[in-house]
């Protein structure tokens, strides 16, 4: 059971072996960071030496966005054409690869929309309404079925990823940036506008990820949602440009736009998605999983079970022996690589409620074993359309009469990026919509 403190996130990942960024991320989540302005300024200095593809004149942004969307559509059509002609998946070699990726980006998904938090305080200024509307839609307007953080949390829960991986420190960078922008947004408004402009342009990797997750039997509703909601015609991408043009002052526009471009470049700090995906190595991940278990299991096995004259305890006593242990499992016939995993004795030991080693490996680790054993053998899978499970969600919302219309500042505090997916944050979002009159009416 996950215990949520007042300021914790339902997706708070494990701390990294390289703790500097992970600790900053955690401090921002817990609202205990004391040097956020300075750190954000340092990140903006790093971004300032990068280049960007924005037009020199903000009046050209709509044409730029339309061209970007057209290029993404053309590239995706080319990708689909290659797949129809028999090309393999571009991103995910197997299901374990996809689940690994979903965990790698969890720190960012845990604070979805956080960079726009400061806009909430400007609800009386119509120039901010596009940014506020974007933030509220990230929050699902307070509906737990639609809150983006909760959608992602449910995805990980369905995949059994309840034990967060220890991630490299860089995996926390974008999440920390989003929390910092949300906390310092009044002082860094142009940078927030610029970051929002970049983050809300739908990239090619979003479309490919959605397509390949479906092939692997994983519900990519979270990613499909961002394909539609971020569209350049009327979605978040369009709202981002409109907000920039409304907030850009007539006097000082050049300086404002220069800062916007620097905020835009913050999106390029860290590793881009395709490069991150390419770093997955099944052998490395399986050995890492074995090492995690080795520390606990090296004294737990009976001596009667031997592989190549060594007991399992002896194999597990030495971390350097793990690759040879995997080879021994194959040599002795316990694992038959390249065949259906159910044909291997080892699989019967770890999978199923009556398996002798039931519970030793979590769902992700078992997927690593499954895909490593299967190797080139292809598991037949039913394609899962994005949102297949969403229709079954039945979370009744409180009646309007039960909404506590607390003062606006208290509501805004409860809607921060580290709290909006908690019950108190969902409740506050609905109350904020009512108090400010910003709720959108349904078509009639």
Share of residues in helices = 40-55%
How many structural domains can be distinguished in the coordinates?
Answer: 2
Strand order in the largest sheet: 1-2
CATH topology name of the largest domain: Heme Oxygenase, Chain A
Structural write-up:
The chain has 444 residues and is mainly alpha-helical. It folds into two domains: 19-280, Heme Oxygenase, Chain A; 283-374, no CATH class. It has helices at 19-29, 36-48, 61-84, 95-104, 106-109, 129-138, 148-158, 173-183, 189-199, 204-215, 221-229, 236-247, 253-265, 273-278, 282-297, 312-316, 322-331, 345-350, 363-374, 408-414, 423-436, and strands at residues 306-307, 310-311. It has a two-stranded antiparallel sheet. β1 and β2 form a beta hairpin. The longest helix is centred in the N-terminal third of the chain and has 24 residues, at 61-84. The protein is elongated, with a radius of gyration of 24 Å. The protein starts with 18 loop residues before the first helix and ends in an 8-residue tail after the last helix.
């Amino acid at each position: 059971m996950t215990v949520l403190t007042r300021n914790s996130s339902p997706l708070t990942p494990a701390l990294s072996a390289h703790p500097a960024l992970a600790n900053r991320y955690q401090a921002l989540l817990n609202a205990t960071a004391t040097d956020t302005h300075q750190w954000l300024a340092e990140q903006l200095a790093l971004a300032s030496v990068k280049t960007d593809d924005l037009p020199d004149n903000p009046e050209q942004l709509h044409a730029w966005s339309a061209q970007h969307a057209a290029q993404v559509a053309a590239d995706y059509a080319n990708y689909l054409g290659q797949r129809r002609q028999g090309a393999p998946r571009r991103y995910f070699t197997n299901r374990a690869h996809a689940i690994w990726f979903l965990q790698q980006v969890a720190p960012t998904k845990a604070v979805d929309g956080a960079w726009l938090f400061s806009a909430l305080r400007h609800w009386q200024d119509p120039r901010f309404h596009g940014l506020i509307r974007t933030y509220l839609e990230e929050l699902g307007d307070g509906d737990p079925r639609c809150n983006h953080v909760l959608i992602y949390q449910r995805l990980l829960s369905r995949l059994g990823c309840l034990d967060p991986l220890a991630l490299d420190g860089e995996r926390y960078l974008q999440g920390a940036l989003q929390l910092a922008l949300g906390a310092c947004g009044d002082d860094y408004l142009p940078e927030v506008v610029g970051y929002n402009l970049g983050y809300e342009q739908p990239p090619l990797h979003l479309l490919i990820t959605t397509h390949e997750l479906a092939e692997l039997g994983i519900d990519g509703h979270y990613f499909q949602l961002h394909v539609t909601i971020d569209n350049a015609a009327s979605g978040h991408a369009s709202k981002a440009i409109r907000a920039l043009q409304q907030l850009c002052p007539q006097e000082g526009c050049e300086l404002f736009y220069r800062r916007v471009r620097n905020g835009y470049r913050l999106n390029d700090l860290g590793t881009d998605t395709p490069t991150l995906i390419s770093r997955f190595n099944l052998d490395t991940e399986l050995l890492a999983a074995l090492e995690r278990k080795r520390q606990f299991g090296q004294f737990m096995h009976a001596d009667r079970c031997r592989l190549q004259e060594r007991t399992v305890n002896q194999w597990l006593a030495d971390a350097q022996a793990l690759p040879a242990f995997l080879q021994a499992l194959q040599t002795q016939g316990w694992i038959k690589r390249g065949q259906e995993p159910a044909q291997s004795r080892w699989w019967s030991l770890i999978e199923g409620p009556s398996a002798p080693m039931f519970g030793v490996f979590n769902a992700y680790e078992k997927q690593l074993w499954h895909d490593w054993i299967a190797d080139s053998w292809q598991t037949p899978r039913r394609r899962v359309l994005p949102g297949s499970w969403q229709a079954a969600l039945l979370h009744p919302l409180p009646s309007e009469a039960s909404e506590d219309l607390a003062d606006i500042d208290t509501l805004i505090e409860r809607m921060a990026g580290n709290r909006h997916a908690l019950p108190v944050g969902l409740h506050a979002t609905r109350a904020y919509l009512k108090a400010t009159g910003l709720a959108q009416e349904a078509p009639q």
